[in-house]
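ugh ok fine here u go
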Amino acid sequence: MFAFLLAAVTFADIAPLLAKHCVGCHRSGEIGPMPLTTHAEARPWAKAIRQAVLTKRMPPWFAAGGSLQFANDPSLTQDEVRRFDEWARGGAPPGAAKIDILTRPPAADLLLTMPNAVRVPAKQELDYVYVALPLGLPADRWVQSVEVRPGARRAVHHAVVYIRERGDPWPESGPRVTTNDILALYAPGQPPSEWPSGMAKKIPAGADLVLQMHYTPTGRVEEDRTAVAVTWAKEPPSQRVLTLQLHSTRFLIPAGDPHHRLSVSGTLPNDALLLGLFPHLHLRGKAFEYAIAEGEGRLESLLRVAPYDFYWQLYYRLKQPRPLLKGTRLIATAWWDNSANNLRNPDPSADVRYGEQSRDEMMVAFFDVAVPAGVDKKTFFLR
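structure:
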């Protein structure tokens, strides 16, 4: 009888998996609670990592149904789970070579930083903060990728980067619901926004960027100077990317309701290619679904997110763009748990309405589409 001994799984085997699936969040300055970029950082967490991957809590991914497949699905293969399992059970050895996972942010063509820090009180809630970032572009520019880099990640509930075209007085003119195009969205768990070759976002000449910042008290005073890193497209694209949304501000979630449901819908005014989906709810969010009705009303579920996790708000980027024909009805459905069973519920005894703070609720179904390069947001909605 011959005994065949398998080589021990070491950090040299694990490091590529961490780089691929984990360190986007688990690195210094990111939302992950601990960095995992070196053996010294990862080894104390080996058993916790093993448990998280065996139970599929990590990497976070909440697509639970629907017809679409997604390019950014970080789910581990059975072999990858096995390697994490064997590494932890084998004592989490480092391996012969010293391996550090490089986590430098990618170089950008333009880095814009908030001119002044925003002081976030330890407990007091702030209204939305709007910060203009002047560009001074003499000509139109196309954006291939953009990354929002919060300075105080624990305090940033979300950030929206709007494109404010020349002559628009918002937000200095007072609060209003803007129809400006969105360059980028940031929420916990969001990776950089990037678009395939031949597709890009457009910033017209003379436009500025406006940051909409929503801060959440963390129990200690925070100072935030969020930055926006932009990479230009190397050549003009054939298609322009627009960020659209379905939303509702008129709803009431009764106190104690464990499964409150709301649907909103809209009809596409013109043909488009669907590129990605980003659902947004607050702490009572339970599940979310995107569906379409085409032709004679045949309903197709595109994506069901369950459970919805406020602390890991994910963008679902399609593996293959999905053509949507003019007249297609897009339906977004949200479910909330406003009962005491929801451990994140700020107040199960309260009826809940739309509001900007985390203790309130929102219902927004963002989605990215590609249209011909010469079509802007206003033109797309001409029927």
